[in-house]
Write a structure and sequence with these properties.
This protein is α/β, with parallel strands linked by helices. It has three helices and seven strands; from the N terminus they run ββββαβββαα.
């Protein structure tokens, strides 16, 4: 499962390392590391209603950028441009078809999302 978070930086250059993002070589912002707690929160919803752990990978997606540089050591978060998101489909799955149906069922209920605290622990 993926937690996709789009970042719009139209016609700007973006640089990403393990924890920081720089837009047009300006001041660093912790966008990449914010993706990890978001993914943990997303994972808590299906885990609350399913009897198995649900791995969730954070995926920040940069939209409209002119250049995207990802530092080679950046391994904990997948970083893509909007046109590269389709590459996620070719990744091998870790859940069975039955587990996918359970996760889908849990994820569709709005009440489940409102009961999960935003703060990742």
């Amino acid at each position: 499962m993926f937690s996709i978070n789009t970042k719009h930086h139209n016609k700007r250059a973006v640089w990403v390392d393990d924890d920081l993002v720089k837009v047009d070589y300006g001041k660093s912002a912790p966008n990449a590391c914010k993706s990890r707690p978001e993914a943990k929160r997303v994972g808590r919803v299906p885990e609350r209603y399913c009897s198995f752990p649900v791995p969730v990978e954070p995926v920040p997606v940069f939209v409209g950028v002119t250049d995207l540089k990802v530092v080679a050591t950046q391994l904990s978060v997948r970083v893509y441009r909007e046109r590269e998101v389709a590459a996620l489909a070719s990744l091998p799955g870790v859940l069975t078809a039955e587990q996918v149906e359970q996760v889908y069922g849990a994820a569709r209920h709005r009440q489940a999302w409102s009961q999960v605290p935003r703060q990742a622990k």
